[in-house]
Amino acid sequence: SDRGRFVGQKRSVVDKNLGPLVKTVMTRCIHCTRCVRYATEVAGVQDLGVTGRGGASEIGTYVEKLMESEMSGNVIDLCPVGALTSKPYAFTARQWELKPTESVDVSDALGCNIRIDTRGTEVMRILPRNNEAVNEDWISDKARFQYDGLQRQRLNVP
Description:
about 160 residues, N-terminal domain of TfIIb, three-stranded antiparallel beta sheet, two-stranded antiparallel sheet, about 15% helix, iron
């Protein structure tokens, strides 16, 4: 909301479209640049950056393109204030409703350590588990968002 008790103008920022996996709520952004540093230093891509200076600075993609990195979902875990969240998982379940189960990703040959959060028999989300020897704190988008194929888009008849 742009209204409040204070006489000064509130800063309102339009939410950006970063693609089908990452949802933005840019009014929460505190410009810590964790997401920008992750994209350049760890993922090795120039997808995110800071434009503008001072109070007019904004974090987003250059020239309104989408995040196309195979590791773009990791910015969701890095954001300290929830300005970057998971689009498929948004508003589907609360943390206290989920039962975590430690597992290993079998979608590729890396064997990344993951945590599968379930509600009943339905997989709600997949998060990374820290293992310095294998995947540190990162997992690929394929591992993070593969749970959609466990319930939906399945063949019912041969």
